[in-house]
Write a structure and sequence with these properties.
This protein has about 190 residues and is mostly beta strands. The protein is built from no helices and 16 strands.
Length: about 190
């Protein structure tokens, strides 16, 4: 039977199946999640929003690869939204608002390649915040549907893959949370079937 680009022939005459493309995403060896890698004990104001960095308080570091950010309050945070500004995987400006959740740690849904500004809402209790990065890694592809993936951790195929999150409209929302332990000693690779 004939062979056409994009199709695979089967043993049933006239019935072809789609041919998949395979891609390899090499994340390198992302460093371990760090709850205060960007800001440590950043103070808030009781009446006005507080933005960082300032002349006296600079960001401690930036994410090593595009990845999700985490925010941990020192106490129960007032209701409101944290405003995060930065760059996505492509280097394009993005902004995300993350709702506070009392005394619980919260996280972005976007993967940030670089953080340029963080604004905390006013808080009558004057709590402080730790800001860092988690294990959610940014993907260099925008997906309309979830692809089949295989995960390699330090050269070993994982029997269970991590969690892939997709968004056809917002590039920064396409992320992968590996099943592997994310640390600087273990290279992580993702095989993607498209």
């Amino acid at each position: 039977m004939g062979r056409y680009p994009g199709d695979l022939t089967t043993d049933v005459y006239g019935f072809n199946i789609d041919e998949l493309k395979v891609g390899l995403i090499d994340f390198g060896s992302p460093i371990t999640a760090d709850e205060d890698g960007i800001l440590d004990n950043a103070a808030t104001d009781s009446t006005n929003p507080t933005s960082y960095p300032t002349e006296s308080v600079q960001f401690l570091a930036q994410p090593d690869v595009p990845r999700g950010l985490t925010f941990k309050p020192s106490g129960s945070a007032a209701a409101g939204g944290l405003i995060v500004e930065g760059l996505d995987y492509e280097g394009k400006p993005i902004t995300e608002e993350v709702a506070t959740n009392a005394g619980n740690k919260v996280a972005t849904t976007y993967a940030f390649k670089k953080v340029t500004k963080i604004t905390f809402p006013a808080d009558s209790s004057g709590i402080s915040w730790d800001v860092g990065w988690g294990d959610n890694l940014g993907l260099p592809l925008k997906f309309a549907s979830k692809p089949l993936v295989l995960e390699y951790d330090d050269g070993v195929l994982k029997t269970t893959t991590g969690t892939i999150t997709i968004d056809a409209d917002v590039f920064a929302k396409n992320t992968y949370a590996p099943n592997a332990t994310v640390d600087e000693d273990s290279p992580i690779k993702l095989i993607v079937f498209l």
